[in-house]
Amino acid sequence: MKAVALTRYLPIEDPNSFFDADLEKPTPTGRDILVSVKAVAVNPVDTKVRAPKDTVEETPRVIGYDASGVVEAVGEDVTLFKVGDEVYYAGDITRSGTNAEFQLVDERIVGHKPKSLSHAQAAALPLTTITAYEAFFDRLSLDINGANKGESILIIGAGGGVGSIGIQLAKRAGLKVIATASRPETTSWVKELGANHVVNHREDMVQQVRALGMEHVDHIAIFNDMRHWETAVELIRPQGGIVTIDDTDKPMPMAGMKMKAASLHWEFMFARAMHNTPDMIEQHKLLNHVAKEIDAGHIRTTVSDILSPINAQNIRKSHALIEAGNVKGKIVLEGF
To answer: What DSSP assignment string belongs to 143-167?
Structure first.
């Protein structure tokens, strides 16, 4: 089967950072399904996994953590899918990735593809959808059915992939969304997705939020890095919650959190699969829920650019665009 692989972890400018490979087609067993991959998306996590380091792989490694495709075969214990089903999923960071013609994935972290979307449109969604959904409804314990209607949420890094779907999920739950963006194109993008207010994260966000008439916000999601930590602590309401998705090597003073009895939550969408948690199937359920929301016209895809085919050249191009930090929404590749 065709695949895009690496053996060394190199700067993306190096033509050897990825190469086109011909690998053996895998066979599903147990609860695994074998997916014929039709489209993939590239995420910041891809660039972090590929980031330069001294490790050298003995055999070609395939990464990639977003895909849409068709079930080619199923393991003997599979009950959720059958051959021919169209699916979308983010996969498992501990296993071989999506940048291959065929991929094995546990059925419990796979959803039925939205019927109204193409494979390219669907591939933009799984990782970011799972991340935003878990951040809001599992970590912050917000109610997906609207019990928190009217409460405010500040989404920092709203123009990226996670923020783009996060705005829509928050709006569907009845929340008032304050999105951050710093460029005209991302400001327009987050407004188009439904943000009630937009503030510039390159300027004083505390001053901007308070100019909107809000001393504090009820909930905060940090969907970029932790440079805005102290701003978030200042803005969160007493007994409010902050959720973040990024690693940090920056200081995170906690005195302000303590004085407000505020909570901090970490979201890592690979945790369920990585640790084989008893509730792994929740990702299957949430992807199916969002697919129905999409087919009903309540949520839209967040794809912003589609490249073809899926090959080393286009994977390198996508990584370079993400590392430059100027991507809105998601970059998708389709077709081998």
So the answer is: -TTSTTTT-EEEEETTTSHHHHHHH
Give CA 161 to chain center in angstroms. Answer: 6
> CA–CA distance from 139 to each of 219, 223, 268 (Å)?
11, 14, 10
What count of other Cβ atoms lies within 10 Å of the Cβ of residue 285? 12
> CB within 8 A of 104, min separation 6: which ones?
26, 28, 32, 33, 34, 35, 95, 96
Domains in the chain: how many in total?
A: 2
Strands 197-199 and 176-180: parallel
Cα angle, residue 220 at apex, residues 143 and 141 outer, rounded to 5° = 25
pLDDT digits (tens, 9 = 90+) for 268-322: 999 999 999 999 999 999 999 999 999 999 999 999 899 999 999 999 999 999 9
27, exposed or middle or buried, with CB in 10 Å at 0-12, 13-18, 19+? exposed
211 shares a domain with 115? no
Token digits of residue 242? 């902050």
Angle of the 281-295 helix axis to the 126-133 helix axis, nearest 10: 110
d(CA 335, CA 59): 24
Query: 227 and 167 in one domain?
Result: yes
Prediction pTM value:
0.95
pLDDT at 247: 77
Residues 6 or more apart in contact with residue 233 via CB below 8 angstroms: 242, 253, 256, 257, 260, 262
- The 10s digit of each residue's pLDDT in 35-94 is 999 999 999 999 999 999 999 999 999 999 999 999 999 999 999 999 999 999 999 999
- Residues spanned by the domain of 217: 131-266
Beta bridge partners of 105: 33
At residue 77, the 3 state secondary structure works out as coil
Query: For the packed helices 161-172 and 184-192, what is the interaxial angle rounded to 10 degrees?
Result: 30
Q: What is the pLDDT of residue 248?
A: 76
Considering the domain architecture, whether residues 261 and 139 belong to the same structural domain is answered as yes
